[in-house]
Write a structure and sequence with these properties.
Layout lengths: L2 H15 L6 E6 L2 E7 L2 H4 L6 H9 L4 H4 L2 E5 L5 H10 L3 E4 L9 H6 L3 E4 L3 H13 L1 H7 L3
Length: 145
């Protein structure tokens, strides 16, 4: 398994252990993780701290030049908010653990020149599927339903 996806899965498991939604993400620049995070909407009562947003927040303020050299790894296909942030900061590549449980805005990302790699990782698929079955209320809230 890719070590960066493994780090994103580790973040997702942290979120689950904290009573939150198991989605994790890492921001990678030149082969180094510079930001990591997990969905913290439940834990922090946040409206915006999806896994990708938390990873970007934890990377801190960066120049546009840095973002343009990054890859964002996420355990689940990015929602409209996270996709918009990828486009806003010009992140050129997103590696997605899975999109079977949720298909985010992949078409829009591709239309804006973002390279996507969808891995359909069995651990990501099972973790989200189990969570959605166990907590459909939290899942539906997270995706705005």
């Amino acid at each position: 398994m890719d070590k960066f996806l493994a780090a994103a899965i580790e973040e997702a498991k942290k979120g689950l252990d904290e009573g939150g939604i198991p989605i994790g993400s890492v921001l990678v620049h030149k082969g180094q993780i510079i930001g990591r995070g997990h969905n913290q909407r439940v834990q922090k009562g946040s409206t915006v701290l999806h896994g990708e947003m938390d990873a970007l927040e934890n990377a801190g303020r960066l120049s546009a030049a840095v973002y343009k050299e990054c890859t964002l790894y996420t355990t689940l296909s990015p929602c409209p908010m996270c996709s918009g942030t990828v486009m806003l900061y010009g992140i050129p590549k997103v590696v997605i653990g899975e999109n079977k449980n949720f298909m985010g805005n992949e078409v829009l990302l591709r239309e804006h020149g973002v390279e996507l790699e969808v891995l359909q990782d069995p651990e990501c698929i099972t973790m989200m599927d189990d969570f959605i079955k166990a907590r459909p209320d939290l899942w539906n809230e997270d995706i705005g339903e």
